[in-house]
Amino acid sequence: MRESYTAAVERNVVLTPDFASEPYEAAWADEAIFFIRVLDPKPRGKLRFMAEISPDGMRWCPEGTVCELSDGEMLGFLRLKHFGGWLRIRRLDRIKATPKVIVYLNLK
Q1: pLDDT tens-digit readout, 52-85
Q2: What share of the chain is helix, strand, coil (3-state, %, to 5)?
Q3: How many separate helices (H) and strands (E) can be counted in the chain?
Q4: Residue 1: its pLDDT value, please?
Q5: By CB neighbour count within 10 A (0-12 exposed, 13-18 middle, 19+ buried), where does 67 fall?
Q6: What is the DSSP string of 66-96?
Q7: How confident is the model at residue 6 (pLDDT cuts 50, 70, 90)?
Q8: Domains in the chain, ordered, with CATH?
Q9: Alpha-carbon distance 24 to 28, whole Å?
Q10: Over the stretch 24-34, which tens digit does the pLDDT of each residue have?
Q11: Cα dihedral angle (21, 103, 56, 78), rounded to 10 degrees?
């Protein structure tokens, strides 16, 4: 029987331009999905996020998967496989908006 787990990695966090989520150890999982839910206010422009991977939770490499949320979109995701031990997401855009978000990580 396959196991799954969902963690709320960030709750009601304000997205600063240099935002990176808390690292999460996920070495046991074969696949992962980050969900980014925009709360309030709705930003104008595209929010962009990239997944990052790490062998130790301290030094990070861009994984390459990108999620873009356009004007008015309230939910997006990044789907990952072959990621090693640690995961997080980083904000890439430089728009001035600082919306609140919730970041979920679903592991299987």
Answers
A1: 999 999 999 999 999 999 888 899 999 999 988 9
A2: 0, 55, 45
A3: 0, 8
A4: 64
A5: buried
A6: EEEE-TT--EEEEEEES--SEEEEEE----S
A7: very high
A8: 5-107 (2.60.120.380)
A9: 12
A10: 999 999 999 99
A11: -110
